[in-house]
Amino acid sequence: MTTLKRLIKRKVVIFSVAIIGIIVSSAIFAPLIAPFAPETQFREGLTLEGSPLGPNSKFILGTDLLGRDLLSRLIYGARTSLLIGLLANGVAVLIGTFFGIIAGFLQGRIGSAIMRFTDLMMAFPALLLAITLSAIFSPSLFIVALVIAMVNWVQIARVVYTQTLSISEKEFIEASRSLGATNTRILRCHILPHLAPFILVWSTLGISTTVLLEATLSYLGIGVRPPTPSWGNIIFENQTYFQTAPWLVFLPGLAIVMFALSFNFLGDALRDELDPTQRGREN
Amino acid sequence: MKNYVIKRIGHSAIILLGISFITFLLLYILPADPVRQIAGRSATPETIANIRRELGLDQPLFAQYWHYISQLAQGDLGRSYLQKTEVTLLIQSRLTPTLILMISAIFLELLFGLTAGIFASVKRGKNADKSIMIASFIGVSSPQFIVAILVLYIFAVKLHWFPIGGYGTFHNLVLPAMTLGILGSGWYSRVMRSSMLDVLRNDYIRTARAKGVSEGRVIFIHAFRNAILPIVAMIGIDIGVFMGGVVVVESVFGWPGIGQLAWQAIQRVDIPIIMGVTLVSAIAIVIGNLIADLITPFVDPRIRIRQ
Amino acid sequence: MNSHPFLSVSDVTKTFQENSGKNKIKAVDGVSFNLDQGETLGIVGETGSGKSTLGRLILNLLEPTSGTVTFNSKNLSSLSTKEMRTSRREMQMIFQDPFSSLDPRMTVGDLIREPLDIHKIKSKQDRHELVQSTAKSVGLPTNSLDRYPHEFSGGQRQRIAIARAIITNPKLIVADEPVSALDVSIQSQILNLLLELQRKLELTYIFISHDLSVVQHIADKIMVLYLGKVVEFGTNLEIFNNPHHPYTKALISAVPKINPHDRTDRIVLLGDIPSTTSKPPGCHFNPRCHLAMDMCRVVEPALLAIKSDPGHQVSCHLFVDESFTQ
Questions:
Q1: Mutation target among A122, A124, A277 for the B interface, most CBs of B within 10 A
Q2: Chains near A, with 3+ CB pairs < 8 A?
Q3: Residues 212..251 of B with a Cβ closer than 8 Å to A: which?
Q4: Non-local CB neighbours of B198 within 8 Å, separated by 6+ positions
């Protein structure tokens, strides 16, 4: 596929794929790479006053407020973020695409009803909604991912709706109908293949939004709860030490930014390749 | 045209009603029991039952909702469970700081974003363009709290140029506004850049240059006026998004706005406040979208004629 | 005339509603005709004449608001969805725009094979052979099947569309302006292909066009439409040698003629075609007709056959004395 070749030539894509590769490997091989278990608290991990240690020979990046190895927690944190990112985004894309296609293809009353509903959901202050939902339901990785999906599916639905609408109006769809194609066939063989690139782009961009939302929720203390490490909750736990041990805040922060950045770069590059008229536009 | 405006406003009203209901529903099915929070640990079952009855929480869902809506129609957002003050008053007192922050933030977002976008479009393909775009991407990919903490660390803790949070003077405003300004400018710069590129490609720009119009005029008067159109709509949406997401920055900088109010309320399960803030934010989003929808025809004569 | 004509369109009307019922557009207004197997009917009209809508009504891609379309003794509106789908094997459409009527993401082979897949004709292996032979019969080069539509020229894309249309061995083909989007030099190639296929496969054509010179080349019978109504109907010979309706005459005068002796003065029509939402009262053509009488502005003329030739019908007050009711 020449698209792939063109993609690979871009420097940002190489950068993004490299970062994503590092993160994914950390996530998958965490037990092999991490020097320690992320939840073990070491007595020698704290100073005599009980503050975290800076980087030293045993703990390469230092320790956190409970004497746990920061590097190990960061590596396992990749696992958390990736898991939630994929799960939340996957669910959001699934729900969004489902409703978007139905609304765009069937149109009529069902279509309007679905679109009115997305109008409603879009008027919800997203972060507030996520915070409220997280506060309501018991904290678990799964619930956090679900909450994020609930907030994110709407935008995907709207994009898929617009696309499905415009594809449905094209003459080759009418041509297939005149041949006698059933709706199922038209959806499967004509509409979905045309939607596929969009879904791919939005999935990639969506992972970045998802990760940012999860980090924010964890930072507020209502996302992934400790001791399970998440880059967001590492910052949450250690923010009181940020003047004396700023790396406890900035290293996970850097990880978050790198993660989101690489998916954003990749998604944007994909969008450029698949639809040159959309360059640089948002929403 | 008037019909359209009326239809849109009606539409928005229905959306607000829908939001109020869904929020009410969500809070109704909370596993956390607000009554226990209020009563405290050592309350007897009698006290709890009394409080529940007092607050009307023993009524069925629709009765509670109906009561809420009828109060709302009179401008009454209820009373905070824990603070014994009217929600309306609480929100009013917090609204001003948030609005100040919002206006300053959007001003800075536009200042940085539009300048960067125009500059990048003019220097297209060169290093300046690439660096600006990368910076924009970083802005878009960073969560608010990280930038907030970073800004706080560098300018307040290390350099002591500004106070560490608080409210009251211009100095307090700078850091939170800068944080939001830098982050938000990422969106604007990208849209501005692509919009400028689209406009600069047009024949009328070529004509202007051929007529001998100075490049400065071409860019800032001819191109800018047309490229700014999508930005206008974005500002409307930005207002809405801002209200929803301001919790983080207000928390980090101790800014006493409605975001902070909402956060405290959520932690204490103070339902009336949560409802109130959600509604106010939703109103802001709806108004923001409405403004974006209604202003665009004014700014873009092509759409106006079609109407 | 056959007692059971191959295709019978009877008083078909199609009204569209815009703006949730506020604007009613009568795109097709009371059109009737019969067609025998193997014949070619040319439907001629300009923008707003309803000819494309009529084409879709004939194939039941749109449901008529009133009236019936009977094909092969079956009333199309009365068929169930499943029966209709099966009937589609026998009636196909060729669209005007060879750029947008082919799915750009499918290969030519997939496109031509699609009708076979839809109707589950032949086994999967045999389909490939049939696709190849059909592609050959429309003049596509042998290696086309793995390529994509955008790699081909307009004329070749229409050949692909034609291949798609004939592969299920249909009896009726409705071609909606099939050559209008092509260069003039390619037009005759495609027209000749269509004629050749008609001979080989015993096809019946309905050929829709705004271009009378094209229709002259290919049609046995010609129907002229104006704002949804039939203004004249007759054989190719009759229409061109003995046109009656002022609109028909104007259209014919605009056809470029090579022989200088054939050239006559062009009849220039006044004004523009009115919008379909506000049709003029009486005879819809009256504002532009240089022969319009007072009656034309008030009363709609009926479609009546002329005395000298019952197969030739006109809808015009000028000829009422000459005609008798059908």
A1: A124
A2: B, C
A3: 230, 234, 237, 240-241, 243-245, 247-248, 251
A4: B227
Q: Report whether A89 contacts A263 (CB < 8 A).
A: no
The secondary structure of residue C228, as a DSSP letter, is T
Q: Is the pLDDT of residue C323 over 60?
A: no
Question: B126-135: long-range contacts at Cβ-Cβ below 8 A with a sequence spacing of 24 or more?
Answer: B129/B193, B132/B189, B132/B193, B133/B189, B133/B190, B133/B193, B135/B186
CB A271 within 8 A of CB A10: no
pLDDT at C74: 85
* A62-71, B30-39, B146-155, C219-228: segment of lowest average pLDDT: B30-39
Low-confidence ranges of chain A (pLDDT < 50): 278-283
Contact A253, A233 (CB under 8 A): no
C26 touches chain A (CB under 8 A): no
0.90 surpassed by pTM: no
- The 8-class DSSP code of residue B257 comes to S
Beta bridge mates, C155 = none
Crossing angle, helix B144-151 and helix A192-219, to 10 degrees? 40
Pick from B149, B191, B278: CB nearest A242: B149
Physical contact, B and A (3 or more Cβ pairs within 8 A): yes
Q: Give A179→chain C minimum CA distance, Å.
A: 6
pLDDT score of C326 more than 70 = no
Provide the 10 A C-beta neighbour count for residue A41: 14
| Closest-CA residue of chain A to B142 | A257
Of A120, A127, A249, the CB nearest to B19: A120
Dihedral of CA B166/B172/B178/B180: which sign?
A: positive
- Specify the pLDDT at position A61: 82
Q: How far is Cα A130 from Cα A144, in angstroms, rounded to an integer?
A: 9
